[in-house]
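Allow me, if you will, to draw on your knowledge of protein folds for a short while. I have a record of one protein: its chain in single-letter code and its fold written as discrete structure tokens. I remain grateful for any guidance, and I place the record below:
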Amino acid sequence: MEQTNNSIPTFAVVGKVNAGKSSVLATLLEVDDDQVLRISSTPGETTECKDYPVEFDKKEWIRFVDTPGFSRPIEAMHAIKELETTEEKPNFKTLQRFVEKYHRSGEFEDECRLLSPMLTGSGLLYVIDPSKPLRDAFVAEMEILRWTGQPRLALLNKKGDSEEFLEDWKKTLGSYFNLVRTFNAHTAKYDERVRLIRSLLEIDEGNGKAIETVLNFLEMEWGQRREESTEAIITFLEKALTHRETCSITERDMSIDSRKERKLKELEETYFKKITSFEEKMQKQLLKLYRHHLVTVEQSPINYESLDLLSDETWQKWGLNRTQLAMAGAATGGAGGLMVDIGTGGLTHGFGTLIGALGGAAAAFLKGGDLPDFGFSIGGGLKMEEADGTALSVGPPKSDNFAWILLDTSLNYYAQIISRAHAKREKDTLTHDGSSITRGLQQSQRKPFARWFASCASGNPDRGMEPEVFQALQEILGNLEEKN
């Protein structure tokens, strides 16, 4: 097809109000922002044609045009036929005469506007809601679009489960369009976007090189997003697993149990708030990478602070089970509390102990085989050196399952983000659904994480292992993309 505007492949998107025209554009453009592309069932929402370029490396490669819908297709069809000559049936030139006659006349304004891009060389995507019956007005629209002679793709945008009229639509559309595809913009993800753009290649071979370039860019961009997501998750895990909160406490407060416990509680709350801030930053990075503006992050430190690593529910849903932890070589004897160092000011030596309720740990033993064999120890015989004060340092949680829970939440959020269609306009909040993804990993996939987690817990992440961990996480994210 002949193109203007520096031969940029252009496709007009045509359809009635509420057929899903804007939803299809949202999928093609990866836009979920109403400020950029408004999705509305209000008649007359689109009154002018609007261009939406698709750019890579600061260069436009393909363009989509949002058009107003037909207002009076049957009357317009008859008006076009009145302009035909004895030598020819209605065609491209007839439509040109129609637009010249009625442009700015106050009559058939929507029809003139939507035909304008096609009269300058654009192809077209005709979006239909197949749950609606096939009426004469639709046939008139299809007839007019056929007269353009431009490459034509019909999209059956399935918005519901009803297929009562689907076969009628398919039989009729085949007579008017080069290609007919079924589609659901409200569930469409990356692979459907690629499939849709590849369909344009099938109807417009003349612009095949440019469309192939777009497809190659899409694949490259998706791979880059996965790499950046991997980096964001690894950065979060390392920060969370190596972070410690430190404060000072006077000798007097240290000698009074109630004051010491209050100080430790405050330090614990500060610690979990920091972990939550690390996670929130990671989530926002992922949302930005995948261009989701309507998904919010509402985190609270209680997500981790109240997490009972000694409860049946936690071990049934999150992280690894006992056998998997043992196979991962994570036998650290944690009791689900925070690791605490208590050291005198200015000195290098400290003393390891645990904070947390002894009653909870005791309950774990009383429940027997229902729970993992944590074991616990309380550091004793603390030797205090004379100094001006004592430093308390909290973190990370001693349980080896904590690292796997952090990884689980990261993977869970990633799966939610990549599975959300850009056509959705409902606001949403990222929440963990309680299921464990890490338990479904192969032992070979968990192995590099187990070793790396152990190095992070020691406060000295093994940099030599990072390429292996990066590659393992890349593979896991790729598998999630295939499943979602």
